[in-house]
Structures are given as C-alpha cells and as structure tokens.
C-alpha cells in the first residue's frame, strides 16, 4: 500500500472512522455510515469547543453532548475512548453490541458513564437536549450573580434526517425557539439518506426554513466532509447568538471514504464487509490494522484530560468563592448537586381526616405541589396546556419564559410527547432538579415512549396525570382512559400511583420525591372523593395497606381491593357485608409496583396467602388483576370503551355501585 502523509487532523478524524468501522465489522451489526460521515464535525466540536473532563463525567458545569441519531453511537464511543473516558476502553470498543458490554447498540446513560441521555427512538435525543438546555438556563438564572456566573455551559446535539422527520422534534424545537435557548446548538447531519434510500422518497421540505420559522438561528456548512474551518466558524457564530437556539446544517456524505457504499442506504445500518473495509482503508490511506489508533492522534485526543482537569479546577475555585460570597444560595446549590433533600421536607405534605371536605385527587395534587414548592426550589415543571385542569401551577412562581428563566412554571403548550422527553432531559441534567409534566391520563398514549424512556434511563420525573377514569364524564370515550393504567403498570421501573384521597396523594408524592432514579406516575381523579378513615401518607407510600379490617387473616371471608375512587366503594360495601355478618377486609392498593418492593412479611400482612377469596374493584380494564385475586372473574372493571355522560352516571352505568360490589362479593363468598 502506498501511504500518503496525513495531517494530524486527518489522522484524528480517520481514527474516529476506523474505530467505528472495525467495531461494527467485528460485531457484524451496527451503523457505520453516520460515524464515517459525521467524524469531521464531531472532531471539531470535541477538540476545539466542548468543555468536559473525561476523568469526571459528573462535573456539573460540563458541556452536554447528545447524539440524537443514537444508532450512530460508535461515533460517541470512539470519541469517549480517544479523549480518555475510563468508562470506554479499547476492549469495550471491541465488545460493541455484545452482552453486558459498556458499548450497547444505542447510547444508554445508565450503562455507560459519560453518556448524558438514553437516545434510541429517533427524535428523543434532540427533545432531551431541549430539556438539558432549559435546565441550564433555569439554574443560571436562579444562581448566577453579576460577578460570579457559576452555571455557564452549552448543550450540543447531533441529529439526522430521521430525527427531523419524527414529530417529537418539531414539538420540542418549536418550544426551544419560543424560549430563545441560546446555549442549545444542534448539528443537522444532512446526508440525504435514510433506511429506505434517498430522503427524496419522503422528505423534501426545507428543514432550515422550518427551524427558522421556529425562531432558531440557521447556518449551513456545505462541505461537512472537508471544511473544518467552516464548521469551527459556524460554531463560533452560533455561540455568539445568545437569544436563539442554533441549527448548523452540515452537509455530509454517509459512509464517507467507502469507495462502493458511500452515499447509499446500504452503509446506514450494515457492516461494510471484509472487502469493502479493506477498500476503504486503501481509499483513505489508512495503514493501521483494526482497532489501532496512531500514537500522534491518541496523544492529541488525550490532551482533553489535562484541559478538562484545568477547566474543572478553575470552576471549583469559582464555586468556593461563590459559596463564601453567597452563602445561602451556595448551600442550596451544593445540596442539589449532592442529590440531597432538605431535612424535614416531608413535614409540609398535607394530611387529612374524614372530617375534611371531599376533594378531587387532582386538587390534592395541586395543594401538594404548592406546599412542596416552598421548601424544594428544585421543583420545576408544568403542563401540556392543561394547567388549570391538571392543577399544576406553582402560585409562588411566574412562568418560565425568555428573559424569565428563574421562574418554575413551564408552559409546554399542546406538546405531550415533546414535554415528556424534555422532562427526561431536565432530570438527566443531574443537577438536582425535580421535573414534573402533566396532562390527561388518556394522553399518555401521545407520550408513552418518553414515559418508557424515563423508566429505562432512570430519570426521576414525576408524571401528573389527571382525569383518570370514565368518572371524568361528558367528554366521552376518546378522553376516558380505560386500558391506560394497566398498560403503564407494565413498564419496568415506573411506579404508578392511583391514590384514593388526600393522604394517599401526599403519600404518592412522598415516594416520588424520595426516589430520584425512577419515575413516578400519578393517576388522579377529576371528581371529588372523601378522605377515608384509616388512610395514611406513610402507608400509601408503601404501595398498599390495610384500610379497614378487624379480623384475623384465617377468619376472613373476603378481601376487597380497590384503587383510587373505587376504594370508597369497597369501604361502603364492606360495611354492608359486615352488617350481614361477613368478615371482610378492605385493602387500598394505590401502587402495585411499590407494593411489590416491600418485603414478603409486609405483603403477606396486607394480602395474607390464607385469605384466598378476593375481589378487586377498579374503573379500568380487568387486565392484570388476577395477579392479586387469583381469579379473572373476581374483578369489577371496564373492558369496553367509555361513554359520554355525566361522570357519576357513567360510573353507575358501568357497574361501579355499592350494590354491585356487594352482590359480586356475596357471589364469591358463596
């Protein structure tokens, strides 16, 4: 092979490319095309502009990098190895996409330290990046002082045509433009290829004009394969625009360097193959064997370690000064950085007695949020244009808007899916912020993927979902959730609460605030519910407990199990049955998932194995309840869609009456 002399820049860029090529080839699985095409822009960004410390990926004031086109993750793994992250070794690169490796097929923040967010489904990453930028803006406005800007970092993201085709990117980027998030800089990898082939098959809009209409600053680097100076100038210009997010369209060649597969859809999601790998080596004058990085390139990349250590050290000195000059703010920031809660924070959770007036659990939720807002400045969130219905407005704060980033009420607009991914980004900023997002329970269909990813990526978001059953009434079946609670219970690492009254609502929030590595979803009623005798904040936070009994387990004729608004029905039915001599226990089970976290002794004390006759009552699908009743017929639920009628009448027509519960109980008792 005749080897031409390569500049240091070429050595570095091709090191990225061939680590990706070799890893995908060894795994015989992956997406080499994007790393090969995007390597120049990524090199310029990571080498000249990004501020990070490879030896401390948790440094608060680091710049955030999000690969929204997550299928091209070998680009990021290569950069992390080359710049010296301990979490990605050369051996990890060789184990790309293998069992239990730190280099899975898409970036996973809970697996690979240094990955900011889990980006799998296209569009999620750019929406997460909006959340990261909102977190930075809020913290900067809250804590920065004229003489001490303690929060000052950028969010960079690479997205592709697929991300721009997905609707979630439009939702999130529209909001980002409205908010004027000047420290959000996105690189659009404009390579004109998707899985089906050329993007001309389905995607011919002018993306730059679309983002310009959103309110973004737009630039175009026409030769993203070679124009490193143009890329650098575009980044400098983007950083100079402080009142708008920036989109830098970078036109690249997917699979750059491959003689026969570049600019084809074949290089998007398949290994090149042995012959084409060799041909690419020859075409790019790459004399090194697989997985070998030239020493000059590696030494250059590894300068990031000293640069990062110096940047963090300087920031730590600034933090010391900040805490000395601004003691109160410094103490709060330090507490949040550590992920700690103020001592006695849960004492503000409101508690109730049966003498307190009946109220909807959505109203109780609003009361809790406002109580918590006074002691938890990290609480930060809002609703998808339903704040008056969801009861999510914090009365002590204004709206988070351009020029008013210190405020805590986020107006997401009618953008449920975008809201979901943005909240995940806020949580994964890892600065102690506690985000919440709200809409009607039925609209979790529009944001299910983001909710699932909050669970997968261990993001401690609080999902506030109101109008939880056919009890919402006249809006009818399109707005009445039936299968939703059951389907959400199926998501691993998601705690779903359906509280029965004020105490249980407080208990759900107690659990949610304390669990920062998993999301919690509250399904809340529109209709008023009484505060029940025996309900408890502490017990509700265990997921399930005995609300009313008075009998030994072996004596029980039946256990009535309810959630939410149906617990009241179980209590009233139990009273009637007891009056007839039946020995009945009422169990409130607001959260299956949290109940299952308890030890076996506790679970058996609530639902004793010796008491086999059980009846569950819930205004939703019966699916899944046999887990606790042992009998698919021992459930009063709804296995059809709802109906338009006043809420109380709809519940009655669907059989949610004391008489129906009593009759079914007697049938089971025999």
Describe the secondary structure blueprint for this structure.
Blueprint: H1 8-27, H2 33-49, E1 64-67, H3 74-83, H4 90-94, H5 124-143, E2 155-160, H6 161-165, H7 167-179, E3 184-190, E4 193-194, E5 197-198, H8 207-214, E6 217-221, H9 228-240, E7 246-251, H10 274-283, H11 295-301, H12 303-325, H13 327-338, H14 361-373, E8 379-383, H15 387-390, E9 409-411, H16 416-427, E10 434-440, H17 444-456, E11 462-466, H18 484-489, E12 495-497, H19 502-514, E13 520-524, H20 537-540, E14 545-548, E15 558-562, H21 566-579, E16 584-588, H22 592-597, H23 600-606, E17 614-617, H24 626-629, E18 635-636, H25 647-653, H26 658-669
Parallel strand pairs: 1-2, 2-3, 3-7, 6-7, 8-9, 8-10, 10-11, 11-13, 12-13, 15-16, 15-17, 17-18
Antiparallel strand pairs: 4-5, 14-16
Helix pairs in contact: 1-2, 1-3, 1-11, 2-3, 2-9, 5-7, 5-16, 7-16, 12-13, 14-19, 16-17, 21-26
Overview features:
670 residues; alpha/beta; Rossmann fold; 26 helices
CATH superfamily of the largest domain: Thiamin diphosphate (ThDP)-binding fold, Pyr/PP domains
Give the helix proportion (percent range): 40-55%
Total domains, how many? 3
Summarize the main sheet.
Answer: 6 strands, parallel
Strand content: 5-15%
CATH class value of the largest domain: Alpha Beta
């Amino acid at each position: 092979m005749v080897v031409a002399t390569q500049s240091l820049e070429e050595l570095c860029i091709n090191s990225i490319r061939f680590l990706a090529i070799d890893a995908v080839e060894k795994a015989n699985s992956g997406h080499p095309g994007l790393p090969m095409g995007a390597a120049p822009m990524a090199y310029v960004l990571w080498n000249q502009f990004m501020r990070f410390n490879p030896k401390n990926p948790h440094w608060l004031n680091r710049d955030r990098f999000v690969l929204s086109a997550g299928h091209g993750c070998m680009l990021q793994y290569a950069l992390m190895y080359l710049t010296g992250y301990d979490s990605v070794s050369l051996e990890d690169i060789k184990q790309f996409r293998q069992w239990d490796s730190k280099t899975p097929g898409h970036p996973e923040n809970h697996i690979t330290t240094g990955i900011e967010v889990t980006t799998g489904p296209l569009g999620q990453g750019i929406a997460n990046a909006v959340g990261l930028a909102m977190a930075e803006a809020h913290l900067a406005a809250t804590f920065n002082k004229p003489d001490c800007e303690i929060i000052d970092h950028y969010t960079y993201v690479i997205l592709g045509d697929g991300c721009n085709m997905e609707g979630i990117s439009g939702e999130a980027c529209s909001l980002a433009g409205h908010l004027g998030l000047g420290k959000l800089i996105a690189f659009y990898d404009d390579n004109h290829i998707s899985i089906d082939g050329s993007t001309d098959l389905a995607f011919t809009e002018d993306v730059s004009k679309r983002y310009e209409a959103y309110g973004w600053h737009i630039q175009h680097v026409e030769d993203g394969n070679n124009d490193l100076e143009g890329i650098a100038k575009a980044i400098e210009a983007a950083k100079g625009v402080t009142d708008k997010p920036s989109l830098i369209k970078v036109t690249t060649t997917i699979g750059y360097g491959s003689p026969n597969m570049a600019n084809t859809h074949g290089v998007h999601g398949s290994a090149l193959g042995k012959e084409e790998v060799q041909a690419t080596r020859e075409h790019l004058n790459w004399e090194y064997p697989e997985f070998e990085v030239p020493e000059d390139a590696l030494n250059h990349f590894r300068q990031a370690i000293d640069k990062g250590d110096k940047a963090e050290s300087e920031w730590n000195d600034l933090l010391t000064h900040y805490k000395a000059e601004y003691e109160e703010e410094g103490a709060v920031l330090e507490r949040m950085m550590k992920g700690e809660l103020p001592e006695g924070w849960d004492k503000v959770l409101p508690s109730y007695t049966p003498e307190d007036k009946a109220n909807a659990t959505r109203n109780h939720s609003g009361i809790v949020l406002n109580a918590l807002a006074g002691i938890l400045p990290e609480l930060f969130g809002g609703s998808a244009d339903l704040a008056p219905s969801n009861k999510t407005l914090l009365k002590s704060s204004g709206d988070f808007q351009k020029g008013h980033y210190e405020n805590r009420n986020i107006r997401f607009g009618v953008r449920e899916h975008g809201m979901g991914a943005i909240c995940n980004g806020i949580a994964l900023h890892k600065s102690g912020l506690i985000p919440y997002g709200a809409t009607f329970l039925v609209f979790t269909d529009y944001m299910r993927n983001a909710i699932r990813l909050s669970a997968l990526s261990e993001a401690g978001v609080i999902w506030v979902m109101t109008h939880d059953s056919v009890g919402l009434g006249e809006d009818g079946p399109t707005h009445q959730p039936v299968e939703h609670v059951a389907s959400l219970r199926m998501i691993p690492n998601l705690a779903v609460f359906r509280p029965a009254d004020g105490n249980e609502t407080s208990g759900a929030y107690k659990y949610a605030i304390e669990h920062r590595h998993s999301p919690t979803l509250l399904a809340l009623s529109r209709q008023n519910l009484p505060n029940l005798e025996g309900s408890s904040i502490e017990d509700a936070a265990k997921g399930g407990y005995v609300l009313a009994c008075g009998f030994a387990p072996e004596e029980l004729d039946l256990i009535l199990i309810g959630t939410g608004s149906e617990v009241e029905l179980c209590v009233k039915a139990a009273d009637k049955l007891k009056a007839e001599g039946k020995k009945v226990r009422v169990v409130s089970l607001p959260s299956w998932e949290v109940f299952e976290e308890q030890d076996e002794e506790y679970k058996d004390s609530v639902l004793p194995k010796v008491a086999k006759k059980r009846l569950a009552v819930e205004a939703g699908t019966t699916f899944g309840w046999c887990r606790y009743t042992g009998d698919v017929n021992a459930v009063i639920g709804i296995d059809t869609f709802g109906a338009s009628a006043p809420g109380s009448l709809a519940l009655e027509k669907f059989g949610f009456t004391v008489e129906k519960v009593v009759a079914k109980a007697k049938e089971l008792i025999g």
